[in-house]
C-alpha cells in the first residue's frame, strides 16, 4: 500500500483535529469560579470633632516645637572680633559654605572672582536677608557679606577650623560651615 504525501498529511491533520476536540483542558471554562470569602471588618464608630480654633487663638502648647538649629556664638555688642579670632584671608574664605540663619539652612558660594570692592557671592535657596548676598570681603578678622548696593548684610568672624559665626545686619545669628 502506498500513500501520497498529501494523503498522509490529510490523515494526520484529521487525527490531530479530532483528538484536540476531545481534550478536557477547555472543559473547565464552562464552570463558574468559587465565590470569594468576604474580608474581615471591624467596627466603625463616629465621634464629633472639636470646633476649629479661630485664627490666632490656637494653643501653642498643643503643637510640637520645631527643632532648633545649631547654636551660634554671639558677637561682642560693639561688633568687634571675639577674643582669639584669627586674621582672615580671601583664600581661607573662598569655597562653598553651609549657611545657617536662625536655624534655617542653605548654601553660599564664595568664589575668589573679583566683584566691586570684594568678591562675588552666590546664595542658594537662602532665607532673608542673606538671599540678597551679592559679594563678600575680608578685612583683618572680619568677613563681611554685602547686598547688590554694597550695603552690609552680615559680619562674621572665624570661630575655629572651618566655621564662621556672626550676625546679620538686623541682629539674626548666622554661621557658615564648610560644606
From TrEMBL:
Stretches that traverse the bilayer: none
Which compartments does it reside in? Cell outer membrane
Where is it found, in Gene Ontology cellular component terms? cell outer membrane
Q: Which UniProt keywords apply?
A: Cell outer membrane, Lipoprotein, Membrane, Palmitate, Signal
| Gene3D superfamilies referenced in this protein's UniProt entry, alphabetically | 2.40.128.10
Q: What is its main location?
A: membrane
Q: How does it sit in the membrane?
A: Lipid-anchor
Q: Does the keyword Membrane apply?
A: yes
Domain (Alkaline proteinase inhibitor/ Outer membrane lipoprotein Omp19) ranges: 88-178
The protein's GO terms of the molecular function aspect are: endopeptidase inhibitor activity
Q: Which residues form a coiled coil?
A: none
Keyword 4Fe-4S: yes or no? no
SUPFAM superfamilies per the record? beta-Barrel protease inhibitors (SSF50882)
Residue ranges, annotated region (Disordered): 27-88
Q: Where is the composition biased (Low complexity)?
A: 76-87
Q: Where is the signal peptide?
A: 1-20
State the family named in the UniProt similarity comment for this chain.
Belongs to the rhizobiaceae omp19 lipoprotein family.
**Name recorded for this polypeptide:** Outer membrane lipoprotein omp19 homolog
Supply the source organism for this entry: Mesorhizobium prunaredense
Upper lineage is: Bacteria, Pseudomonadati, Pseudomonadota, Alphaproteobacteria, Hyphomicrobiales
Report the gene name: omp
